[in-house]
Write a structure and sequence with these properties.
Elements (H helix, E strand, L loop, with lengths): L8 E5 L7 H13 L4 E4 L11 H11 L4 E4 L2 E2 L5 H14 L6 E4 L4 H6 L7 H22 L9 E3 L4 H10 L2 E2 L11 H14 L8 E6 L5 H15 L1 E7 L3 H27 L45 H41 L2 H43 L4 H29 L5 H34 L3
Parallel strand pairs: 1-2, 1-9, 2-3, 4-5, 5-6, 6-7, 7-8, 8-9
Length: 476
């Protein structure tokens, strides 16, 4: 069975026990801080001891920055497709595009009937799910609101008809280790692949996720998961977790090791022999809305790290570690450009509204201001989270690995603090704008100019000094 070569993702599956609500939320927040990709919850509305899944997902989305949230899986017999589509799209908008949708045809039918649902035969339940997928996607494309990003639909599937439906219409397959033997995965995968091809799709169009239980020693566990990826194409592992230590070990020990093993295997299968790696500073540009200082900091005051060994070569895996920092920065640069574009739109809209003085335009202005505020808040949290992860994990590791980097890391940490203050200025300027203060948009533009200069300069400096050390020492 092929490796579909999807990027690897890792997440958690937390039991939504109402009597432990604070702990449930804290575990989800921990998953966000330690860098996991997904936080998910089962959905059993008839279970009196459980929190409502969609209410819980909304709270988690509001208290996290980077993780995607998903029902794993939504109980379709008690979630009307139109309402489910609108709920998912609404939360996707409010969370900055961080929602995926796991769907199930239904189980525990006595509980479903007791909660007001209709008992369906297995055939009827699959037919209902088939129809629901079309309804949900129709709402997202035509009925509104539109999701902020293309929400993936994952199916919890085990039987032949459900597997065929997965290959025909779904974006992902999410079985659970508790209900399937590992030796069954290749045959189930083959059914999905065959259905995908029959529907004119490619097998790699469907991501393979797996709800897993805890493993043994971290290295052995990682080797098992890596082998599953390479032999069955599973690329997202969602751990059933009830304690912070489990989540930390999964995120800090198991996930990096799985990524390393899979990257090595994939690289050996397709990459030429590595030559000397050349790390170059990425050219950075900005399009300011007004005059912008060339740099927020005096470049001559920035310390530099140790000289690099020109004869040193790096494997593809080692190069990927340094490249990851650039990739994260590139994403933040792209979002910074979007944020500046929004500022320009609001500035232009405010001027037009003052001239036209129409009610519709005034409502448009309010919506634009709200959109800007939501995007700015999300971006500010993302930058802060990125810097927090560096300060708490990456920088201490590099400091231990190479004492000669100490002055550079000290300077980067100082710049993190100053950037945090600049983010606060943007937020304060936005508050003034929404409050209709006379110089509101001017304050936003000035604050954005300073933030843009600071971030672009900071990213460039950090890449220049840390990409090569990260290739040598890794992130952890």
């Amino acid at each position: 069975m092929p490796d579909y070569r999807h990027d690897l993702q890792f997440g958690v599956f937390i039991t939504p026990v109402a009597s432990q609500a604070d702990a449930v939320v804290e575990l989800a927040r921990l998953a966000d801080v330690v860098g996991l990709d997904i936080v998910s919850f089962q959905d059993h509305p008839y279970q009196a001891k459980f929190l409502d899944t969609w209410t819980l997902l909304s709270v988690i989305a509001a208290q996290t920055t980077n993780v995607r949230v998903a029902p794993n899986v939504a109980n379709l017999p008690l979630r009307p497709p139109i309402v489910l589509a609108k709920s998912a799209a609404s939360l996707d908008i409010l969370s900055g595009g961080r929602v995926e949708l796991g769907l199930g045809a239904g189980a525990f039918w006595d509980g479903i009937v007791a909660a007001g649902g209709k008992r369906l035969t297995p055939r009827q339940s699959v037919d209902a799910l088939d129809e629901a997928i079309d309804v949900i996607r129709g709402v997202w494309s035509d009925g509104g609101p539109r999701p902020l990003h293309p929400i993936e639909i994952w199916l919890g599937a085990y039987k032949p008809r459900m597997l065929r439906l997965t290959g025909t219409k779904a974006d992902g397959w999410v079985p659970s280790q508790a209900y399937v033997e590992l030796e069954q995965l290749p045959d189930m995968n083959a059914r999905i692949d065959e259905a995908a091809v029959d529907a004119g799709r490619q097998p790699e169009d469907i991501r393979r996720l797996f709800n897993i239980n805890g493993g043994g020693a971290s290295r052995e566990w990682a080797e098992q998961l890596a082998q599953l990826t390479l032999s069955t194409g599973i690329s997202a592992y969602i751990l059933a977790a009830s304690a912070g230590d489990e989540i930390r070990r999964f995120a800090e020990e198991v996930a990096p090791a799985v990524r390393e093993l899979v990257a090595d295997a994939r690289g050996a299968a397709r990459a030429p022999a590595p030559g000397p790696v050349v790390f170059e500073n990425t050219p950075l540009t900005a399009t300011p809305t007004s005059a912008q200082p060339s740099s927020a900091w005096d470049e001559s005051t920035r310390p530099t790290g140790p000289e690099r060994d020109p004869s040193r070569t790096y494997s593809p895996r080692e190069q990927a570690v340094g490249q990851h920092l650039i990739d994260v920065h590139d994403a933040l640069r792209g979002e910074l450009t979007q944020l500046r574009d929004l500022v320009e739109q609001v500035a232009a809209g405010t001027s037009n509204a003052a001239a036209v003085r129409s009610y519709i335009n005034r409502m448009t202005i309010r919506q634009n201001n709200w959109t800007l505020g939501t995007f700015c808040e999300t971006y500010c949290r993302t930058v802060t989270s990125h810097h927090t992860l560096e300060d708490r994990s990456v920088f201490p590791h590099l400091r231990r690995s190479d004492a000669a980097l100490g002055a550079v890391i000290d300077r980067l940490e100082e710049e993190h603090e100053q950037i945090a203050e600049m983010l606060e200025r943007v937020d304060g300027a936005l508050v003034a704008l929404v409050a209709s203060e006379a110089d509101g948009i001017d304050r936003v533009e000035r604050a954005m100019d300073l933030l843009t200069s600071a971030l672009l300069s900071h990213f460039s400096y950090e890449e220049r000094e840390l990409v090569e050390p990260l290739a040598r020492h890794g992130f952890y």
